[in-house]
Each structure stands twice: as C-alpha cells, then as structure tokens.
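Subject: mismatched residue count in predicted assembly?

I count 810 residues in my input, but I want to confirm that the predicted structure covers every chain. Input:
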Amino acid sequence: MSHKRLIWEEISQLAAQLLRGGAAETPGIAQIAEHLNRLAREQFKANALQEATLEQQRETINALRQTVTRQEETIALLQRNHHKDIELARHDLILAILPVVDGLEATLNHANQQLERLAEWGEARQLLSAWVEGLWMVYQRLMDVLAQVDVVPIPAVGQPFDPHLHSAVGVDRSGRAPEGVIVAEERRGYRIRNSILRYADVIVSRPVRSHAASKDGWRETIATADRAAE
Amino acid sequence: MDDPIVGIDLGTTYSAVAVVQDGQPRLLTREGARLLPSVVGLSPQGKWLVGIPARNQFVFAPERTVRSIKRMMGSAERITLGRYTLTPPQISAFILHELKAIAEANLRCEVRRAVITVPAYFSDAQRQATRDAGEIAGLEVVRMINEPTAAALAYGLNRAEDQLVLVYDLGGGTFDCSLIELVAGVVEVRASHGDTWLGGDDFDLRLAEHLAHIFANRYGFDLRRDHHAMARLTRAAERAKIELSEHPFAWIREEFLTESGGKPLHLEYEISRRQFEALIRDLVQRTLDSVDRVLQDAGLSPRDLDRILLVGGSTRIPLVWQMLTEHTGIEPQMAIHPEEAVALGAAVQAAIIAGHPIEAVLVDVTPFSLGIEIATPMGSSVIPDIYRPIIRRNTAIPCTFEEVFRTVYPGQDTVEIAVYQGEHPVASHNRLLGRFRIEGLQPEVPGEPARVIVRFDIDINGQLRVQATDRKTGQQKAITVMATRERLSAEELNRATAQMAALLATQDAGSESDTLEMGELDVMLNRARRLLQNGRLDMERADQLQARIEAIEQARHAGDRAMLAKALDELVDTLFEMGV
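Triage response: the counts match. Full output below for your records.
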C-alpha cells in the first residue's frame, strides 16, 4: 500500500510541475514522459505483487474454510462414534469375563454332582455343602453385576433352536425331544440389550438321521461353532 | 454419497465390503463386525439366513446350509436347500445381497454398483459365475479385479514406481501366493499358486491335538473321543494362537474338561511361542514351497522381488513373517490389517472408476524398528552390542509385542535394557531412546539363567513403553520414551497444509526487507510462466520471455545477487512492455 501511495504522490507532484510549466527547473517533456513511464512500471510491479498476494490470501482462506468444514465433520463423526466405541469396549470386557463365569458354573455344577454322590450326611458333606453355598453366592454376585449392565443369559434348554440366538454344536438322535428343540447347553449364551454378546452353544434334537453328516467328524462341527462369539 | 461404487472381497470363509469416503478407504461394518461369514442357509421356518445365523445352524441342519460356496463357483453343480435347488452364483448372491444391505445401512443410500475381487487363478467360467452372482444380487459389477491386485491397490502401489510384488495370502482355510508386476500404474498378475486346503484352522487343529496329547500324558485320558472337550480345546487353541502372535507365552486354562471316576480333570498348561512354532513349522514350509513355485513359474528368484505384501489373518503369526523373511531376504509388509486389505483395495479400484479422489490408506506406523541391545555367548566369550528388533518398522501402531530373553550367565541377577530405534544390526549404531536396569532377577530353575520378558507397547502418538518382567518373581521395571512416528502417505501434505506453509513463508519474508525481493521474484516468475503456458504469446515474444526466465534461473543458480536484481529488472521491463 505504501508503495502505491508513494508512486501517486510523485505523479501528482509531476503533474503540478507540468501545470506550472515553463519554469527553469522544469524538465523537458521527454524526461517527464520517461519518468511517468518508470512510475507506471513501478505501478505495474506493485499491482502484480498485490494481485499475487490477494490470490494467495483467497486460496488460503478457501483452504482454511475447507479445513474448518472437514474438522466440523470429523468432530460430528467422532461424537457419533464415541458412544459406539464405549459400547464396543464394554462388550469386549464382558466377553473376556464370560469364560470366568463359565468356569464358575462348571465348578458349581460339578460340586453339586459330588454332593449328590455323597449320600451320607457326614461332616465332610456338610463342609463341602457350606463351601459350595459360599461359592454360589460369589457366582450370584457376579451375575447381578452383569445384569446391572444389561447382560442376561439366553434361554436354551427346552427352547426351539433359533440360529439368531443359538449356535448348534451337536445333534441329539435319541428322540427324547421333538426335532428342533434344544436338549442341552454346552456353553451359555448372553445378550446385551438388543445385541448378542455370545451365542449359546447348544445340542439340538434331530431324531431322523440327516443325510449330510460331516466327513471329518468333530473338527467340522467346531469350525462352525467356535467363532460364534464374534 | 450419490450412487456409490463399493468394493467387495467375496471370500471363501469370510467376505467384506468397503468404500472410499473423503478420499479414505474404509470397511463398512455391522454392529462392530467387520467380516461376514460366507455361509448361507435356509431356516426350518423357511427364512433365508446369511452370515453368523447360517453358520450357527450348520451342525443342526447341514442339508439346509452351504459353506465355502466359492470353491464351487463356475461348476455346473446344483445345491439343494430344502425345497430349493440353486446354482453357486445364486448362493453367492445371498452373500453379496447381505453385503449390499450392510453398505446401504452405512451409507444411507441405495448401492447399485460394485467392484468384486476374485482369486488370480479363477478361470473365465468362475469369473463369469461371480459376475452373475452380482447381477442376481442387484449389483452391477463394474469391474472384477484379482485379489492380489486389490492388495497392491490398498497399499497405493499403483501410484508408486514400477516393481515386482509378491502377495502372500494366508487365510483361515486357503493359501494363495501371487506374483504381480506394476508397470506405469498398471497391475498384472505374472504367476499364481496356492493351497486351497491350508490355513489358520489347520494351525488351531495342530495345537488342539497337542493339548489333547498333553492331557493324555497327564491323566491317561484320550479327549479326542469327547466331542465337547475337543470343541473347547480347539477354541482354547485358537485363543492361544492369537495371543502367541504378541506374547512369548500363553496360558491355556480349561477347567472341568472331563472327569474320571467322579474326579474332575482340568487342563492348565503354559505354551511357549517356540513350542507352537514347532507344531506348525512344516505347514508354513509348505507355503514357502508355493512361493518358490510361483517364482519359478515366472523365471525369477527372490532377489528380483521389490516387495512382499501380507494378506489374511494368519499372516499375523510371527513365524510366518520370520520364515518368509529368511527365505526371501525381504521384510514383508503388513501395515494394513491383513484381513481387510483386499476389500479396501477393491474400494480403491471403485473410487478410481468413479473418478473420486483417493488418498492412500492412512495407517500410523513406526517408520523405524524398535528393539533392545542383546549379547550372545559365542564359545567362551560373549558378543555384546547386538541389536534385536522387537517391533519391526512399518508396523501399524498402536501395538504390543513381547519377547523373552535369558541372562547371559547363570546367577546373573541384573540386566540393563537399552532401547534403540533403527535398523542397524549393531545396537549402538542405532538411536538410543533410553535405558534402565532390572535387578534382583531369580532363575526359574536353580542354576539356570534367569528369564526376562521384555514388552514393547507403542501408542498412536509414538509414545513407547518398555517393560521388563522377571519370569520368576514377577517384579517389573519400565520406562516410557518417545519414538518417531509417521503417517504413511506421500499425499498427506494436502493443499491446505501446503498453502498454510506458503502463507507463513510470506509472513516471515515480510519481516525481513532483504527477502522482499524473493517474493517479488517468485511473483514475476510465476506470471511469466503462466503467460508462456497459456500460449497466447507469439513466437518472438515467447522466446524473449523464456530468455529472461532463464537469465534469472542462471543468476539464482550462481547465487549472484547483483546479476539476479538486474535479470529481475529486465523481466519486469519485458512483462511491462508486453502489457501483461
């Protein structure tokens, strides 16, 4: 700007000199023309610089605007995803705890079987019984905690097989239950609100022999079942 | 997004769908699930099932469930499901339709077009069958690309220099290896070979059998006849396999596996990575034989390769990386999730067809290897200052890796952990990030050297935590240091940052009167060049302008300020005379 103003000051001085005319110190017309030309060249240079600066500023402002827009979009996306991420992290944690629950259940089941075997109501049985009762309370507390975060077991035995809730890991040919009814639970399934945390691994009644029995036995079966928790 | 084109990896065991959004390829998920099991079924109620529910019913209703339909594509076989008889493309169409639904739920618009990947070895009939499957699912298949090509696209290799790339794809049930050549951004598959019945499931099985063997030795009880127990062992084996990819040891704890005479039998067993590696080494060797065959078919040797890309979840096993590196002399790359690379690459191809801008898949990586200094006994002496990388360069971060080390001498109770960043085999030639001592070590077996687990955790910001744990006492020491991190993408300096830099540069220049001339110089040069480019000048004037530009460049090159000022003046004169 100052560059430009200087030029215009000089030009106006020259103009004044020309208007006064004829004075001894006045340069010749050719000199004036040359001087004006030089100034115009300076003006050209200044304009070119200014244009370039303005263009750069425009581009920068545009780039900044784009950045701001993109950041606003990112912030909105992050906010949307934030809740989802917390939810997923919680699912992961609960999924890691479920095998511990399975272990506790197995322990309790086994202890109860042992108690039944110990027919005599001796001291050993009393001790074991009290001990199992304590463990049962620990288990209940754990289940209460899970229920508080909306984790509930999926009903299985006696229910009709539902591939959206259960994963079949075996079939029962005995005919003790109607076809398609779950006769045993190999691993309990859990849901959290509307989604499945872990499918229930179940044995389903299938009295008639199926024609497509797998070629390599248990391995095939496992391959279908073992990723149920994903 | 208007009428998007999605990229689909239609796999044997799993499938996935991805799209490029805002220049970034990303996988489209459903309830956090990134992969869809490639299984189709018909429920007892006559409803179609795709993915996990279909897989769930396989054991109960195998006659109404289809897995691995990809193996039957292009064949004339018919599959009977309940009262329906279907062709392989019709079955595949269910999977594609489900992926389409996943994409539509994510993108909130109709999806009508897709790029679908196929194995490089697929015949014309198999490719046509895949195309048919797309059409049945209501998808226009705008392009079919080879899976290894997709992997190369995910890594942005189409924009890199010409090169020969080996794509090593080890999935859950199949192994493929392809040699691809990139010339001027065009990808061509030169040779391909595979093993259609080899994958991660085989590794699980080996480990499960080993566990059954251990159990038999301990209790004299053969679990292999017990379906339920074997199911648990296989599941435990898969978990341990995954854990051993990051840690040198994994615990297998399966309580109440079975009982004998009313006595419960448990399995508690710690397996080392080394043991697991011994169990699967011959299987990995088989994949290397395929690698050799592919190279042989193309008349090449490993030395001719520029790069190896790892695809498929099983490539996370360190032994795969190690054996492949030893065999070829090239460190394979795995910066992009190996299960997702093919789908992401298909999405990149889709964006290229749609003419959408694509940035490279952005992955945060550690640009240098991170490791510690070790010493190795050699006869009676000890060689010190050997570098042992723990996190390899170009590993996606955040990540965690653990290795186990022994003290050099029995009875040695202190070790110093020196943490380095770099690639040089001599530790001290790398950049030292920090060091610390762990004292009071005790041997697990009296008289033997103590063992220390060194764990490296690096977070997204490049903050590296190094922790040493004495195996015997469990006592720990740790330090946290900063490692260099990098965002892997040549194009990451987008316009905005470039312009911000330009703006800052001019501001700096303004503060020093001396450099003002440089601003002027650039402005005038740009103006002159633009004039030349738009071609509106006649020959004579163009030559004149060109001469002026060259004079400036010469002066600049010579570093002669007076000459530069003069040349600039002349350029301004010329531009001014031209009135432009």
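The longest strand of chain A covers residues 166-172. Marking this ticket as 'not a bug'.
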